[in-house]
Amino acid sequence: MHEWSLATALVQAAEEEARRRGASRVLSVAVTAGFRTGVVPELLERAFEAAREGTLLAGATLEVEVVPLRLRCRTCGAEEEEMTFLLVCPRCGGPEVEVQSGDGLVLRSLELEIPEG
Amino acid sequence: MCETCGCGLPDAAKREAREGADREHDHDHGHPHGDRGIRREEVLLYRNLMESNERTARANREHLLEHRVLAVNLMSGPGAGKTALLEALVQAAGGSLRIGAIEGDLATDRDAVRLRALGIPVHAVTTGSTCHLDAAMVHEALHALPLGELDLLFVENVGNLVCPGLYDLGCHLNGVLLSVTEGDDKVAKYPVAFRNAQFFCITKTDLLPHVAFDAERPRREARLLKGDLRLFACSAREPETVAPLLEYFREARRVLL
Fold first, then answer.
1. For chains A and B, what is the number of CB pairs under 8 angstroms?
2. A37-87: pLDDT as tens digits
3. No. of H helices and E strands in chain B?
4. Within an 8 Å CB–CB cutoff, is residue B106 touching chain A?
5. Which pTM was predicted?
6. Number of independent structural domains in chain A
7. Considering only CA atoms, which of B155, B128, B117 is closest in space to residue B139?
8. B228 shares contact with chain A (CB less than 8 Å)
9. Is residue A19 assigned to a domain?
């Protein structure tokens, strides 16, 4: 499943950010997944447990937040948030919608352990 | 710069080797612990995790544009008729468009062999266990194809309606196929496949008399997922039915390239 390749991408990105800041360990990771990506938090957490082994993230906890899609309708101007895959305006049913947010996979924050001195 | 194709991306294989070596090298920085303190720090990043694939996809698209090749990503469940459709399209084009293909599968190069028999350049990508193609795999495949001699490049994705939709390959058009034997209720079950799709094609229409398939239902559901989706229906066994699709690709070449 693609949660595996997402987990490895997550670990790589987190390690890079941790190294850049001189961290010796990553304690926790927070990720935001747009509903429309179809990512299942439990599967990502499980894949993460395997992917973090032997890296700066060994033992780190993962928190996955799923967020709704925010759409703006070009036809009626409505701005709506919905946990949906449908790119149609929930108000007028028109197909001319813009995705404003909630459609990607974002590494929101890291908790790092940084040796001083 | 990529030495082989000058595309602006470092050669993917070399980059991976470098990253692997860096990981080993940085294994022990030699930060002394014990006497020194350790502090905890939370950092806010808002870093896009799909960024690496997106960057490679953009580079692929640029590269194809420079060579004036329209690239089309075909996705479907296994056995929906992607390869048969490509065979029919090559035949219908009759040499008026120079066509090439990238074939993705977990194992075997069967589909590549079928298409090569039609005399077109084909590169097979075997993914091993990865259930989808990604932009990096397509990037490598582009190196192996004579892009200067092509007008239209099809990427036949791994037969899978679950995962491929999440990965931009750098194609200009993404399409989903559904055959009349797969049930008319599948579109709503596999919404992620339509995520970045521009067209949807119902295949094997020659079998309609033998199956209970309401063609309106998947079209309606697909249009709900993406209101501007172009809809097609065809049979690879009835060459005249693929003409509208071919015309769509010709039109796309005029508009996008």
1. 116
2. 889 999 999 999 999 999 999 999 999 999 999 999 999 999 999 888 888
3. 8, 8
4. no
5. 0.84
6. 1
7. B155
8. yes
9. yes
Q: Which residues of A touch B192 (CB under 8 A)?
A: 36-38, 85
End-to-end CA distance of chain A: 43
* Tokens found for residue B189: 């079950």
The CATH number for A51's domain is 3.30.2320.50
* Domains assigned to chain B: 51-256 (3.40.50.300)
Identify whether A97 is part of a domain.
Answer: no
| Residues of chain B contacting residue A112, judged by C-beta atoms under 8 Å apart | 40-43
SS3 A111: strand
Cβ B104 vs Cβ B125: under 8 Å: yes
Whether residue A82 lies inside any domain: the answer is no
Indicate whether A86 belongs to any domain: no
- Please tell me which residue of chain A has the smallest CA distance to B52: A9
C-alpha span between B145 and B149 (Å, rounded): 9
Look up the ipTM and state it.
Answer: 0.91
Residue A11's domain comprises 2-68+102-113
Q: Residues of B numbered 21-40 whose beta carbons fall under 8 angstroms of chain A's beta carbons: which are they? A: 23, 26, 29, 31-33, 36-40
Q: Considering only residues 18 to 57 of chain A, which have any Cβ-Cβ distance to chain B shorter than 8 Å?
A: 19, 21-24, 27, 31, 36-38
Q: Measuring CA to CA, which residue among A101, A115, A112 is closest to residue A60?
A: A112
